[in-house]
Specification:
disordered N terminus, 13 helices, Amidohydro-rel, 350 residues, binds 2-acetamido-2-deoxy-beta-D-glucopyranose, alpha/beta, 8-stranded parallel β-sheet, TIM Barrel
């Protein structure tokens, strides 16, 4: 018997916190708004409840916490009404899956950000009436990053509720410091989030930098300490964030003149209290090591990224993880926490 067979068969369950549902009405709405090839990908993958259950069986996933992925629900600049409607419909759809299969499905509710007022209504409805497990927030919301002052009422409310935010990447929509005449602007939502660099699909590289930008902004606005009861799950083992920590900490003290201190040690303290990182993507055999300078096994959770990672690749990657994980986490207890225990802790908060 290969050693990973032993490991997998000893795991009672695997909880997948990074995986997506693609309802037909959302596919139609995003396609109509120009996101039929989202983030420079060839198309929106096929999805059905049955296909998801089948994947779960193949990949030994006992429970999937579903979310809407990029581009989210705010699709047209100024289209607040449509964004609210699409968020509600998406959340109702996911809630129905969870209601019918509570042991197999949970969900992160989508919000119509950057519409703050609409998001406050939706998060209350999703957490109080739809039994959502937390919310998904994108790395930027038409150019506005988590931590922005504009979003403070939303973070205040999520903090009051001890909520979990799953931070998911989307395409960049950033200020260009050298050329601010075309900058999208932080507080007007004039630009669709379809900036694409060098004709590569944005998930390949830009999603990693988006995660780095979003988390860095949470630290450099002190949002992490202002709202200490929010937990975050960061996609793809943090993307490009781990190698950026020393650098932004240095910039914070040397150049930014912030009224609070950020050091790599303070980042580690916040991580140990509030942050989780998922294993979606090719985090094994190599990427995981950068993250391990900052967190231990209690802060790592499993993610498949199905169906944006096709089923056969989810199974293939699971094999790579199983092959490498015993070397990185020799303790069986640590591996159980990564595959389910930590996710159970997160879900128990919701
Ligand atoms: C799922 O579990 C079975 C039985 O323990 C094992 O043979 C199989 O390799 C596992 N599949 C994956 C993708 O880990
Ligand atoms: C949030 O957590 C704190 C500390 O554990 C607890 O006192 C408070 O009741 C919780 N609030 C909610 C709304 O669950």
């Amino acid at each position: 018997m290969r050693h990973w067979d032993v490991i997998v068969s000893m795991l009672a369950m695997v909880i997948d916190v990074h995986t997506h549902f693609v309802p037909q009405f959302w596919r139609e709405a995003t396609t109509k708004a120009g996101f039929g090839k989202p983030d420079g990908m060839p198309g929106i993958p096929a999805w059905s409840e049955e296909a998801h259950l089948e994947l779960m069986q193949q990949a030994n996933i006992s429970k999937a916490i579903l979310s809407i992925t990029s581009p989210g629900t705010y699709l047209i600049p100024g289209g607040y009404h449509e964004a609210r409607r699409l968020s509600r419909k998406s959340n109702e759809f996911a809630a129905d899956l969870k209601r019918r299969r509570p042991d197999q499905f949970g969900f992160w509710a989508v919000l119509p950000l950057p519409d703050v007022e609409g998001s406050l209504v939706e998060l209350a409805y999703a957490l109080d009436h739809l039994n959502a497990d937390g919310v998904v927030i994108f790395t930027n919301n038409h150019g506005i990053y988590p931590g922005d002052k504009l979003f403070e009422p939303v973070f205040h409310e999520l903090n009051r509720r001890n909520a979990t935010i799953f931070i998911h990447p989307t395409s960049p929509c950033i200020y260009n410091n050298n050329n601010d005449k075309d900058a999208p602007g932080q507080h007007h939502h004039a630009k669709q989030q379809i900036i694409q660099f060098q004709s590569y699909p944005n998930p390949m590289l830009e999603f990693f930098f988006e995660s780095a930008r979003a988390i860095t902004n949470l630290f450099l606005t002190n949002t992490v300490n202002t709202f200490p009861r929010i937990s975050y799950i960061i996609s793809h083992a943090g993307g490009a964030f781990p190698p950026s920590v020393e650098r932004f900490s240095y910039f914070a003290s040397a150049l930014l003149d912030l009224p609070f201190e950020v050091t790599s040690d303070s980042v580690k303290e916040v991580f140990a209290r509030q942050f989780y990182f998922d294993l979606a993507g090719l985090t094994f055999p190599d990427q995981i090591y950068g993250l391990l300078r900052y967190v231990g096994a209690r802060r790592i959770v499993y993610g498949s990224d199905f169906p944006y990672t096709p089923g056969k690749d989810v199974v293939g990657i699971a094999g790579v993880v199983d092959e490498g994980i015993a070397g990185v986490f020799p303790d069986q207890f640590d591996r159980e926490n990564i595959f389910s225990g930590n996710a159970e802790t997160i879900l128990a908060r919701g």
